[in-house]
Each structure stands twice: as structure tokens, then as C-alpha cells.
């Protein structure tokens, strides 16, 4: 499989190249040249497969010749063997219509582990074939950072620099990053910054020739295609359990950077019957506005109890706009440059109509979120985290026919955000034993101002050059 940039002028790459590249050299994101698809009979034959085998079947067409089926299965078996539940992503029933897909059984308690545990192994495999070093630079609102650090800590030929907005991640999230003391892990807290500021610094570094000529800069954010690919698998896993390919299923997805829900779009392109993808946002609702009115204009970020969704620029939305807008990279490049200059753009008719056929969107405020946490506790004896609650709220007001099952993606373990859960239910969720003595461990992190040059200088001083 060949990967092309959404902005039409970067060279195309194979899967291994796209995995190591991160952002394309024209500022775009890599997408497969075409969507592989499965027939109804092929999908039906996947029912009941163990997760690691299902993952290999779904991902093989994207991986192409970069990994043999045996090698890919070896990697998925290793990645998903680290999950604390045999089903990897178990499905729970709430009531006749509502289901919960638990994606938080990995080492750092959020769905990011599903993709990043595999990505860490892919980096190791592909870097092992040459003599290149990789410098990962990433921005996190909390969960990507901890999951990426867990996935690459101590691995050869990789350094990771993880930027987070100082004071805007939860204590559990911060400690899951800063207590990893492996020498290849570099945590940077950016002062007076939001996640979008941190992400903008990272994007600038990918386009900074002074940095890219010295270092192989790689990505662990969902701009990295391999992450989205790994997330497609659990849409199939849930769909198959609820009757796919013979019965359509809807998904409600707590959304920030649009990576997780874009993976659902890919699953639909591959033949999984999906009735609706509900994009659930908190009050930082640029995506809800874009999908409901066509107006994609950046507001200011309001900090909420669901910090991983406190985002006003959703990187992966560009992938959708490219695909539903006719795959015209140069036209999209012009549209995105306009957005970067003015912080606003209108979707084209083709983009709006293309999105409307599969996507719906809902916005949840703080009360909606708390009520959803309380509903899950009182009706189903289930503690859910604030991000998941936004998804559940959106699912419950979605107005879909009663016979369409709606699966809410549970994106984080409730103990990652205990304060909001306790406020809503009076119950304080406990950290699972697998995270160990997180609150007693030493932390290591540097504070830097939100100034591009200071951060580039820090990375350059601590990273290992290309070869
Ligand atoms: C990252 C994250 C999200 C948002 O996912 P995107 O792929 O960025 O849309 C939602 N919930 C939690 C808990 C997360 O960590």
C-alpha cells in the first residue's frame, strides 16, 4: 500500500516510510492511496477471532509488503498481550440500545494504548532494519504522552520529547509521564500554554529545515497514520459482536483531534456497516460547529474536566476533508493555508455533504457530562470517566431508531479522572493495581516557556542526530 499526502505535493511512501515520517513534508497528513475493503463473507468470517488475529487481518492490507502476515501477527500478539483483559477491548451492555466499548485496559488506562503499544513495536521493527535514529516529538493533552512514553521507554534508537501544557493535565496523567526515568524519555512542561499551543510548536518543528536536516523527527500523535490504522480494529471487534456484517451499528466517540472517530470512518470505508458516527465534543466544540453548520473557526480553549478533548484545532479533520472533498490535495492545501492564516474556514458543499452522510455531532456541557456519569452509576452500576460521559450523553440524545445498537467508546479508565467522577457520584474510583505506586515515584520534567526557539534548542541539545 502506498501513502499520499492530503496536501498533494509530498512524495508518496510505503507503510514503513509513512510510519516513520509523521507529518508529510508539504505539511499534510499521510493517507492510503485507496481504501481496502472486505466483502460481507470476509467480514462474517472474522467473527470470534482473538483480538490479535482480528487486528492482523484488518491491518494487513494497509501494511502491504512492509511486514509479512506472520511478523504482523507476532507484533499484534505482543502489543495486545500487555492488556489486562483477555478480550482486549471488551463490550459491556448498558440497556436495550446502549453499549460501552472499554478501550482502557492497556498499561496507561486510556484508549491511546491500543494504538501506541503497537506503534512502539513498529518503530523498533522498522528502525532495526537500518542504522537510523528516530527523534519523536509530540504534544499531549495527557493521554497520548503517557501511552507513547510507556510504548517507547528504553527502546534502542528512539528518543521521545513530549510536550504538555503545564498544569492542564491531571495528576495521574502527569505522573504516568514524568515518573518514567528511562534516559530516552524527555518530558517538557510548557508554561502558560494550551494543548493547541504545544501542538503548533510540534507542527512547526516538523517543517523546520534546520531541525529536519539534523534529526529524523517522528510522530506519535494521531497525525501518524499507523495509530489510526490500529484503531480501526476495535470498530470491527464491536460491530462483529453486535451482528455485523448483517446489522448496522452506531458509534458515539468522545472526540478531540478527530483521530478515533476517523478510524470509524475508515472501518465504514472497509465495509463495516455503520449506521452513524456520532462526534461527541465538550464545550470546545469546533467540530460540532463544523459538522452542523460548515463553519470551521477556531474559538478559545476552555479547560474542562475532559482535558483530552480541550482542543480547537483537530488535526485529523483534514483527512476527512481530503477524502470527502474529492482527494484534491492542492485545493485542500490552499484551504488549509487559509485556515492557518485566518483561524477560520468554510467547508465546501462536497465536504459538508460527504461528512453529513455518516457523521452526526453533539456537544455536552459540564452538567450534561455529570448527569451522564450519574446515569451510568445509578442505572448500570458502572463508573465512567468524563470523556466517556460526553460520548454517552451524545449517544443518549442521538435520536437513532431503537433497533440500532449504539456503542459509546469508553476512552479512559474512571480512575484517571477521579475528581469529576467523585463529584458526580460520591464514589472515588480506585486505580487498578497494574499502575503500581505511581504517587510515590520520583518525577522528572523540565519547564520551558512556550517559545519555539527555546524548545527547538532543548530538543537539539538532547536528541541523537539522524545516523
Ligand atoms: C485522546 C482522547 C480523546 C480524543 O480522541 P481523538 O482521537 O483525539 O479525537 C478522548 N478521550 C480520551 C480519554 C483521550 O485520551
Give an overview of the whole structure.
It is a single chain. The protein is an alpha/beta fold and 467 residues long. It has one domain: Rossmann fold (3-Layer(aba) Sandwich), CATH 3.40.50. Helix 3 packs across helix 10, helix 4 crosses helix 5 and helix 10 packs across helix 11. It binds pyridoxal-5'-phosphate (PLP). Pyridoxal-5'-phosphate binds next to helix 11.
Structural class: alpha/beta
> Could you report the average pLDDT, rounded to the nearest whole number?
95
- The radius of gyration is 20 Å
Instruction: Please name the CATH architecture.
Output: 3-Layer(aba) Sandwich
State the shape: globular
Quaternary organisation:
single chain
Would you give the CATH topology?
Rossmann fold
Q: Give the uncertain stretches in residue-range form.
A: none
Per DSSP, the total helix count is 19
Strand content: 15-25%
Strand numbers in spatial order across the main sheet: 4-5-15-10-11-14
Q: Which ions and ligands are bound to the chains?
A: pyridoxal-5'-phosphate
Largest sheet: 6 strands, mixed
Instruction: Report the span from N to C terminus.
Output: 27 Å
- Approximately how much helix is present in the residues? 40-55%
Query: What number of structural domains do the residues give?
Result: 1
Strands, count: 16
Amino acid at each position: 500500500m502506498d501513502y499520499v499526502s492530503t496536501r498533494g505535493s509530498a512524495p508518496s511512501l510505503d507503510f514503513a516510510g509513512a510510519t516513520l515520517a509523521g507529518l508529510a513534508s508539504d505539511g499534510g497528513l499521510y493517507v492510503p492511496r485507496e481504501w481496502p475493503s472486505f466483502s460481507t463473507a470476509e467480514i462474517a468470517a472474522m467473527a470470534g477471532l482473538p483480538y490479535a488475529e482480528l487486528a492482523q487481518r484488518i491491518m494487513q492490507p494497509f501494511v502491504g509488503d512492509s511486514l509479512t502476515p506472520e511478523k504482523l501477527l507476532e507484533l499484534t500478539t505482543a502489543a495486545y498481550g500487555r492488556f489486562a483483559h483477555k478480550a482486549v477491548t471488551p463490550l459491556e451492555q448498558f440497556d436495550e440500545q446502549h453499549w460501552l466499548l472499554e478501550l482502557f485496559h492497556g498499561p496507561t488506562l486510556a484508549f491511546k494504548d491500543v494504538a501506541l503499544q503497537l506503534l512502539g513495536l513498529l518503530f523498533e521493527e522498522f528502525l532495526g532494519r537500518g542504522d537510523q535514529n528516530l527523534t519523536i516529538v509530540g504534544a499531549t493533552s495527557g493521554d497520548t504522552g503517557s501511552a507513547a512514553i510507556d510504548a517507547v521507554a528504553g527502546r534502542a534508537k528512539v528518543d521521545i520529547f513530549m510536550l504538555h501544557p503545564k498544569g492542564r493535565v491531571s495528576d495521574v496523567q502527569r505522573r504516568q509521564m514524568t515518573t518514567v526515568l528511562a534516559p530516552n524519555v524527555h518530558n517538557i512542561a510548557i508554561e502558560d500554554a494550551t494543548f493547541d499551543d504545544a501542538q503548533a510548536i510540534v507542527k512547526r518543528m516538523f517543517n523546520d529545515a534546520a531541525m529536519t536536516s539534523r534529526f529524523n523527527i517522528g510522530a506519535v500523535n494521531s497525525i501518524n497514520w499507523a495509530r489510526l490504522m490500529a484503531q480501526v480494529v476495535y470498530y470491527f471487534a464491536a460491530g462483529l459482536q453486535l451482528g455485523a456484517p448483517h446489522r448496522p451499528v452506531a458509534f458515539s466517540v468522545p472526540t478531540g483531534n478527530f483521530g478515533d472517530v476517523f478510524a470509524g470512518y475508515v472501518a465504514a470505508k472497509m465495509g463495516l456497516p455503520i449506521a452513524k458516527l456520532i462526534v461527541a465534543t465538550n464545550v470546545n466544540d469546533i467540530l460540532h460547529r463544523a459538522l452542523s453548520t460548515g463553519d470551521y473557526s477556531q474559538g478559545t480553549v476552555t479547560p474542562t474536566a475532559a482535558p483530552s478533548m480541550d482542543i480547537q484545532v483537530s488535526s485529523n479533520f483534514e483527512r476527512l476533508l481530503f477524502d470527502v472533498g474529492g482527494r484534491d490535495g492542492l485545493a485542500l492545501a490552499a484551504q488549509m493555508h487559509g485556515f492557518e492564516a485566518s483561524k477560520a474556514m468554510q467547508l465546501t458543499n462536497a465536504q459538508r455533504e460527504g461528512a453529513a452522510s455518516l457523521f452526526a455531532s453533539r456537544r455536552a456541557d459540564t452538567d450534561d457530562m455529570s448527569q451522564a456519569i450519574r446515569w451510568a452509576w445509578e442505572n448500570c452500576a458502572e463508573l465512567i470517566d468524563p470523556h466517556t460521559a460526553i460520548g454517552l450523553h451524545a449517544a443518549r440524545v442521538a435520536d437513532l431508531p431503537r433497533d440500532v445498537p449504539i456503542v459509546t467508546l469508553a476512552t479512559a479508565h474512571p480512575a484517571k479522572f477521579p475528581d469529576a467522577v467523585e463529584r458526580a457520584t460520591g464514589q472515588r474510583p480506585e486505580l487498578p493495581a497494574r499502575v503500581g505506586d505511581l504517587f510515590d515515584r520520583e518525577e522528572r520534567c523540565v519547564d520551558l516557556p512556550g517559545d519555539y526557539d527555546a524548545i527547538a534548542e532543548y530538543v537539539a541539545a538532547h536528541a541523537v542526530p539522524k545516523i
